[in-house]
Amino acid sequence: MAIWEKLYRFPPRYGPEWGSGGIFGLKYYKDVLYYTVAFEGEAHFVRDEHEKIYEFDLVGEKPTSGGDTYNAVDVVDEFIYFGGWIHAPAIYNGKGHASTINFVNKYSHIHEYDIENDEIRLVWKDSIHHPTDWAGEVSDILYDPYNDRLLIAREDGHKNLGIYAVDRKSGKSELLNPKRSLKGAIIHDNACFGVGHNFTNGLEGIHCLDLITGKWETFPVGDSVDGAPFIRPLLGDMASAYNRVFAFVRGGLFVGNPLNGEAMSFFRLFEFYTFYAPMRTNALPIGGGLLIAYNSMHDAIYQPRKEDEKEFARFTNTIVGPSVLVYIAPPMVKIVGAFGARITSIEKAGGKILLGTNTTPNTGALEATPFDTGSKDILVLDEKILQENPPALSFSLPLIFPSIAMTQYSVGNFGGIPLEGYKEPRLIIYADKDNELSVYEYDLLLPPTQAYEERFDIKKGRNVIDLSSFSGIVSFSLKEPDFEGKVRIELR
């Protein structure tokens, strides 16, 4: 029996937290498939002969909840190292003026699974034992092969944030850099991590640790290839390929190698003035390229209570299109799949691509339930989707999305749509006024060049722009804001 034939779906079950977690950390290594089901607080290890389910009782008492919501996992020799956070035991405060979780038992953690002996060991844990605040979650694990240690990124939390080194034998931890960081990637002999507050402004640069000398260098992000600014580039994941760092963010991706003098240029991709983003997922190296998901709904406010929360609720609950699976093979960017609310984890196993999926997003503070609210499963696809024609799909969105969450931005570029493999793509604009549309055409060319611009007159009413004469990636902008207009992008 193939290992994926033993996989099953996970309907809503016990797990006090905010909204829904997901299936995270998918890792197929030495005939073992590991993944964590959050918020149920279950780590699964599937072999041909049996399945082990670990409920984090080495951290604290049951019942537990949480586990991992950022895909913190790496492998070394015969070991799988998995991290994240866990409530042990979980405390649900119940409904009242607000529905909350007590964080006094929330721990950040790193565990080691010994494949040869089928054993789990707690390597490290950390907690500040506070009812409303928590120690920085482990959101990424990178193995440092020169110093034989684990580098962990910690941004989501209130204390103990930054980049830490953890000795994988003793569990002793050391703070290497206090700047909060969510994700990182190894490039050549450096480990590079995102810099910036990811829950406000987004990625502002990267800082790189020379694994040999121990010295740090910090580099700002560069400009966009279509000439327009980027807004709130919240970091989803980072990866290394083509001797460059790839940082996947809300609205696009940054690519470059500042260590060699090449700036981190911004390529607009799926910019819709909403929370559509490559967040709470992972980039998978495959076929020499990278596979990443841009998610339709990963985080959202469920019950806004204040005016600013109402704006952010509209921003996070506006659904403009399906989640897409995108294959990055510069200069090509290609859509290879269309799915529901979100893809939480991506892995390759025996000619298959495994996707952790979920119907429901994470929600915000004061919106806790005593059970996970999403329906989760692991979808099994053939690797051949990378070489097949892309799926037919469409996006529908307001032309302008004035919002506190988007810093009241009124005129800017949107789109960033990969046209690879589509024969009849088109843009339909329902305009409330006469206007002028600019179409920007560019590839994921490395090093980059500026986009080509072509302009079209837009009349009040319905306008159809044939995009079949364009190639690569296209983004758009209007000369004047149109607060009542809307757009439909059709890819066929």
Automatic annotation (TrEMBL):
Pfam families: DUF2139. It comes from the Archaea. This is Phosphate ABC transporter substrate-binding protein. It comes from Palaeococcus pacificus DY20341.
